[in-house]
Amino acid sequence: MPDTEQAQQKAQEVAGQAQQKAQQATGQAREKVREQVDQRSTQAGEQVKTTADDIRTVGQQLREQGKEQPAKIAEQAAERAERVGGYLHDSDADRIIRDIEDFGRRQPLAVAAAGLALGFAASRFLKASSSQRYQSSVGSSSTALGGNGASAPRYPATAPAPAPSLPVTTPVDVPAAPPAGGIDRL
To answer: In the chain, what are the domain boundaries?
Structure first.
């Protein structure tokens, strides 16, 4: 009996150690995700702020040209972009993740629609990129065969065998329609 108790105790120790390592790995992964979200959101915030400045410049140019309504629309878009850029730049990963989760709880259909749109966009991207990869592989194989970009044959370039000579025959008259008795009389 003492051997089975020792084996059970050892198994529990091993299981406990495995659980601790799994928790540590999970914690490290979460920390890396947080760092990435912080870094990427700050970069995105800076880019959005730069875009807002560009939109504001366009609005000023439109106003100088006397186009007041488009200038107002550009100014409103610049203000919204600037707010989004400020949010992304100033928020930490925990706040962004929490806000996304809250939005998902309040607007589940919007999240589902966004997921569907992202999935559709990803599928179109993959389809387009696979076509480009196929075209580039076909193009590279034809130029590898010494072509000038035109499609080259995929078989060895050997001289064709001469065709066997066929005897010359004279034409035979064939009736246009079968005899009146039917086909079996031929």
So the answer is: 1-92, 107-142
